[in-house]
């Protein structure tokens, strides 16, 4: 069963339940209103009896002022002759042990009278009594003559059949109207739900396209409800997947290129040894080339490993004396034959990993030497304020091309204009990864002349 059918059925069930509750409440209100009307009628009749009949009884009493049973009966019959009852009620008088019943009343009550099945009530209390002819409302009041003498009681009975019929009529009308409303509403609801869920069907088709390797998109509806949010987020997800796929393609291409080049060079020189056509000097030169290319391969693999490890890489966070970092950097630069690098450091302590800091600074210096003309000045400084320590590597070279400046810290992005450098393009990416692993940040501050890279870490204490 489709979602639109289920939603429609659920909505119709809720509407139907609401309709049933509303019908029952309406029926109950009608029943209570009819009963209140019957009670008002019965009270009015008893008030009328209580005001007129005692005077008739007093008028028929003998010289002693006490009415005999025969006199009570005569007074009751005379009263019922003039007030026999009505279409909504039946009057019953109990006088001196004699029961007198009016001749007029609702058919249901007259049938009960003829069958001698009229219910009896309790004085001063209105009650509903179930009978063979339906529910009957009964109200009884005592008859009191002058002097406070109770000579009998008067009972007014009203049939609730009309209330039942009116309630049934209300239920039938509400049911008919509700059934028509449910039918029409169900059709309208089915169409509306189908229309509202149309973007989800488009979303399912687009998801199939993405699963099959395509770049499916869905039209984004001009609304801010859940469906619109899902469509927007789905398109954003597909965009992210496309970017990730493109980055993977670029990564594979760059890795393939960076690994293929030194392998090809090394292989060509090794072939000289294989054919035995090289003299001793050529052999030494070829061996040197092979060693350098293998070193380059090792650096590329190390950079890839560091970059892939990212935040999961084992990095210490401990007090480090900044001048010790600079001294270690100078030793590494001397070993690589990189001279002419100006260094200075404030005597401050920062939180980080000394080996990783030296590795990062060395990568920045090598990057500056590689991408600037010979003779370009390179400086390494350590600055601080009350909360942070900044390790700065800057040069006065031509600077970074504006086209790659925003992506300089991304992997395999070369900072040399034209992209002609034989470099993996991993230096800045590895530096950022290692710095962030130590809880710091790395940023590029290109000026009007040269390039300035700042590694900022927390100051100890």
Automatic annotation (TrEMBL):
Residues 194-246 form the HAMP domain. The keyword Transmembrane applies. This is histidine kinase. It catalyses: ATP + protein L-histidine = ADP + protein N-phospho-L-histidine. Coiled coil: none annotated. Its EC number is 2.7.13.3. The keyword Cell membrane does not apply. It is found in: Cell membrane. It is an enzyme of class 2 (transferase). Residues 254-461 form the Histidine kinase domain. The chain crosses the membrane at residues 170-193. One of its GO terms (molecular function) is ATP binding. Keywords: ATP-binding, Kinase, Membrane, Nucleotide-binding, Phosphoprotein, Transferase, Transmembrane, Transmembrane helix, Two-component regulatory system. Pfam families: HAMP, HATPase_c, HisKA. Its main location: membrane. CDD domains: HAMP, HATPase, HisKA.
């Amino acid at each position: 069963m489709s979602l639109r059918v289920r939603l429609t059925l659920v909505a119709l069930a809720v509407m139907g339940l609401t309709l049933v509750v509303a019908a029952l409440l309406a029926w109950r209100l009608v029943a209570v209103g009819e009963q209140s009307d019957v009670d008002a009628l019965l009270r009015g009749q008893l008030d009328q009896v209580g005001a007129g009949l005692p005077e008739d009884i007093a008028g028929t009493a003998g010289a002693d002022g006490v009415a005999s049973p025969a006199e009570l009966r005569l007074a009751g019959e005379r009263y019922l002759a003039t007030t026999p009852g009505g279409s909504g009620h039946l009057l019953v008088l109990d006088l001196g042990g004699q029961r007198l019943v009016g001749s007029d009343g609702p058919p249901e009550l007259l049938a009960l009278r003829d069958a001698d099945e009229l219910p009896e009530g309790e004085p001063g209390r209105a009650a509903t009594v179930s009978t063979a002819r339906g529910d009957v409302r009964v109200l009884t009041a005592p008859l009191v003559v002058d002097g406070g003498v109770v000579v009998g009681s008067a009972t007014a009975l009203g049939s609730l059949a009309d209330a039942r019929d009116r309630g049934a009529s209300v239920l039938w009308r509400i049911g008919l109207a509700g059934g028509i409303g449910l039918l029409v509403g169900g059709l309208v609801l089915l169409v509306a739900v189908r229309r509202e869920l149309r973007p989800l069907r488009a979303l399912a088709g687009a998801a199939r396209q993405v699963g099959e390797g395509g770049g499916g998109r869905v039209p984004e509806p001009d609304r801010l409800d859940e469906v619109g949010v899902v469509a927007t987020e789905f398109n954003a997800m597909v965009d992210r997947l496309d970017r990730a796929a493109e980055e993977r393609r670029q990564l594979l291409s760059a890795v393939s290129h960076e690994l293929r080049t030194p392998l090809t060079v090394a292989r060509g020189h090794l072939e000289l040894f294989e054919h035995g056509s090289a003299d001793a000097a050529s052999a030494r030169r070829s061996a040197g080339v092979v060693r350098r290319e293998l070193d380059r391969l090792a650096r590329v693999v190390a950079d890839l490993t560091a970059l892939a490890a990212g935040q999961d890489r084992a990095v210490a966070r401990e007090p480090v004396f900044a001048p010790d970092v600079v001294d270690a950097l100078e030793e590494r630069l001397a070993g690589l034959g990189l001279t002419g690098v100006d260094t200075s450091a404030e005597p401050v302590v920062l939180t980080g990993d000394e080996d990783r800091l030296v590795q990062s600074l060395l990568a920045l210096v090598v990057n500056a030497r590689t991408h600037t003309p010979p003779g370009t000045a390179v400086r390494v400084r350590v600055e601080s304020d009350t909360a942070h320590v900044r390790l700065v590597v800057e040069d006065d070279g031509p600077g970074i091309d504006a086209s790659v400046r925003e992506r300089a810290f991304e992997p395999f992005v070369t900072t040399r204009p034209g992209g002609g450098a034989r470099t993996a393009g991993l230096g800045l990416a590895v530096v950022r990864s290692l710095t962030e692993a130590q809880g710091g940040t790395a940023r590029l501050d290109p000026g009007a002349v040269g390039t300035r890279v700042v590694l900022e870490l927390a100051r100890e204490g």
